[in-house]
Each structure stands twice: as C-alpha cells, then as structure tokens.
Amino acid sequence: MATVLTQTYNADAAIVVTAWDSLAADDWASSANFENSNGYVDVLVGGEIPAAATTLAAGESFDIYVTARYDKDLATSYGGGLGTALGAADASLEEDTEFTPLNLELLTMVSVEATTPNTTQDYMWGPVSIAQAFGGIMPQHFMLIIHNNTGSALTTSCVVNSVGITYTST
Question: Is the model's pLDDT at 148 over the cut of 60?
C-alpha cells in the first residue's frame, strides 16, 4: 500500500510587530518571538508595511531578516548580544560592538518603487519560508527583524502574519 503525504496549511496567525510601528529611517526593530510549539515543518510569513508619506526614498528598501534560536533563553541563545541589543529600536544598534546585521539571515527585501510615489501606498511582502532560510530545517524559535532603509519613518499598524505547515502520512 502506498503512503500518502498530506500537506496542511494551518490557520493564519499574527506575529506581534508593534516595535515596527513608527520606525524611524535607518532604524532596526524586532518582532515578538515565534515559538514552534506545534512542530511545524515550515512557517510562511508575510505582511504589510504601511508607507508614511510620499517621502520614501525611491528605489530603497525595507530589509527583513530572520534569526533563530535553539532554546527559550532570550538573553543568551541568540548570540552576539542580539537578545539584549534588540530591546531598543534605534540606529545605535549598528554601532553596538556585539550586534552586527551581518550575522542575520536576510529573508526578503521589500523595495520601494523606482520613482517617488504620487500617493501614499502600502507595501506587501511574502509569503516567505522560514525553513528555507535555515537550510530546510524549521528552527524551534525565531524572530523577524526589520531595517528601514527608506529615508522616512514608518506609520503605525505594520502587520505580519504566519501560516504553519504540517505533514501527515497515511
């Protein structure tokens, strides 16, 4: 008898990103921690970044990174001081000797259109696979980090949603 593998997309759930709201130009901010307590084999993430005004620098981007950890200890397991460095969302993080964005996994770049927009618009991104960022293996815990490269502050109400994926064999 053949084995049938069924892929299931679970209910859409929000990831808290309140630190992303009103993020100034060239600043960094993290999401809440995502704990993979359901044993998902992958999580797709995506969202919406509301644009503040028509002053976004044409051709610039919002860079979205992901970092993972292997246990629940926020202070130590992210390594390089990241657990404490991302407690504040400001450009001084770039100068922190224990925090370097070069150690983060770039998940996606959300590009501002090449010419200055005539009207305020929101920027959609995703869905993007978390497991793919880590060689196909879903981490136990992860958080998303945004870097605002646009030359303008973000407005409120950034949204990030996640959809967990499970497999069932019968």
Answer: yes
CA gap 166, 40 in Å, rounded:
5
Task: Please give the Cα distance from 164 to 81 (Å, whole number).
Answer: 29
Instruction: Find the range with the poorest average confidence among 18-32, 97-111, 135-149, 152-166.
Output: 97-111
Which residue blocks in 9-157 are alpha helix, DSSP H? 74-77, 82-85, 130-133
Question: What DSSP designation does 148 have?
Answer: E
Tally of CB atoms within 10 A around 166: 14
Q: Are 160 and 55 in contact (CB under 8 A)?
A: no
Residue 119 identity: T
pTM for this one? 0.80
**β-sheet bridge partners, residue 115:** none
Sign, CA dihedral 74-77-78-80, equals: positive
